[in-house]
From TrEMBL:
PANTHER family: ATP-DEPENDENT DNA HELICASE, DNA BINDING PROTEIN-LIKE. This is Helitron helicase-like domain-containing protein. It comes from Jaapia argillacea MUCL 33604. Residues 1-155 form the Helitron helicase-like domain.
Length: 157
């Protein structure tokens, strides 16, 4: 699955590189600015602009950050900042491991269990209102250096 994802991601990046005119990359002034300040053009290289729709791109991340800040401006200050981390000793993970296996041997199981538990937590907070009436929330899921997912959640009541 990882190889299939990598192949499709590389295909997307190749398309972006070969179709810069279609995504109107010429409207970005980075190269023009570099030439204007007499930068060494040998150090610049070939610039490829990624659209904001490319999830792993900087522009997408900046857009999400701007959206989050707009929510903060509109709703007011956050009431809770919650971090949920993976516990490799969760029963759901341990039950699925074969004898002699550890959680690091099965990142697919760890990721699935974390996703289910994160979904249940979000449902408890949003739908069941265990912290009160939620007017907005923002969350991100990241992976630690050990490969374990964790979630940062900001909650506005």
């Amino acid at each position: 699955m990882v190889d299939a994802w990598a192949v499709t991601d590389q295909a997307k990046l190749r398309w972006f590189r070969n179709n810069q005119t279609k995504i109107m990359a010429d409207v970005y002034q980075g190269l023009v600015d570099a030439v204007a300040r007499d930068a060494n053009l040998n150090d610049i290289g070939k610039r490829t602009i990624l659209p904001s729709s490319y999830i792993a791109g900087t522009r997408c991340m900046r857009g999400w950050y701007q959206d989050s800040m707009a929510i903060v401006r509109t709703v007011s200050n956050a009431d809770f900042f919650l971090t949920m981390t993976t516990n490799t000793n969760w029963k759901e993970i341990q039950d699925e491991l074969l004898p002699g296996q550890t959680a690091s041997d099965r990142p697919d199981i760890v990721a699935r269990v974390f996703k289910l538990k994160a979904k249940a937590l979000l449902e408890d907070i949003r739908t069941n209102g265990i912290l009160g009436k939620v007017v907005a929330h923002i969350h991100t899921i990241e992976f630690q250096k050990q490969g374990l997912p964790h979630m940062h959640l900001i909650i506005f009541l």
